[in-house]
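ingest -> validate -> predict -> emit
validate: passed (alphabet ok, no gaps, 201 aa)
predict: started
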Amino acid sequence: MWSFNLYKRPNITKSQLVAIVPLAIVHTMGNLCTNMSLGKVSVSFTHTVKALEPFFSVIISALFLGEVPTIWVLSSLVPVVGGVAMASLTEASFDWVGFWSAMGSNLANQSLNVFSKQFMVKKEESLDNITLFSMITILSFALNVPLTLCMEGVKFSPSFLQSAGLDVRELCVRTLLSGLCFQAHQQELGLLLLESSFIQE
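emit:
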């Protein structure tokens, strides 16, 4: 989008880049934990545990931003926590590694939200929501490349994918479409956040 001037190209300073790197690391950890959980338990159970994200958001916001939750917020979390506990007790595919990986994903994702909020309030470091998330995603990709090479080697090469019975062209098209849809989703969220910030002001 920056290349085709569909969205204003940012002028990222060195200090901004340094400040964004820790956010990218946290984002990377969140994605890794989610995928570890998906590899150990059912998709539905992973997302059930990830329903605890509001709980982590309240705790982390209280610890780092000093935002004390109201009794109404705390009471609204009770059925969420209770529901996840009940689902965990009755889950057929329950696995401790999968459970704690999903919990780690919650911790990382909500930490990212809180730390991003801290980044946004610093006027000298300020970027709009969409640009900040885009930079976090790009840096996270850069962090994942060496990790992927160490863990997987060149198993994702076209020849390996073909030998595994996969249609390389179809895989590339679906990956591209998935990335475009995800980016469009993030653009929408960024615009909604900007709109809500404008209304609050």
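The radius of gyration is 19 Å.
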